[in-house]
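Q: What residues go here?
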């Protein structure tokens, strides 16, 4: 099924340079904005920490004398494929990013074209 595959992108050099500049500038402010509980995709943190945390939380989960509880696991299928670009732009505006910076991101996400042959 086509939806089971992710396309390989061959970006031009200018696109790669601009996105690297954007990432470097974002790194200057992201540490103050990212929650301490966010472990995936953050340098120095590991998604494995969440597994250890979950194991620790469930130790003794069924002990007698404690209130009844319920656990729920949610897995968002292909979460990165469902990002609404308008929402991303609105979030950047809400966090007070400069208009010129938001414009660069808009150019990257709205003008990028992928093809599958």
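A:
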């Amino acid at each position: 099924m086509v939806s089971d595959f992710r396309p390989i992108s061959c970006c031009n050099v200018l696109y790669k340079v601009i996105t690297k500049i954007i990432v470097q500038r974002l790194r200057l402010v992201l540490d103050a904005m990212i929650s301490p509980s966010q472990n995936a995709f953050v340098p120095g943190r590991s998604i494995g920490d969440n597994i250890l945390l979950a194991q620790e939380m469930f130790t003794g989960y069924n002990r007698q004398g404690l209130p009844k509880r319920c656990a729920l696991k949610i897995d968002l299928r292909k979460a990165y494929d469902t990002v609404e670009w308008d929402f991303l732009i609105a979030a950047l505006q809400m966090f007070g990013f400069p208009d010129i910076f938001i414009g660069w991101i808009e150019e990257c996400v709205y003008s990028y074209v992928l093809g599958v042959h």
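A: Context that may help when evaluating the design: The chain has a mean pLDDT of 79. Residues 10-111 form one domain.
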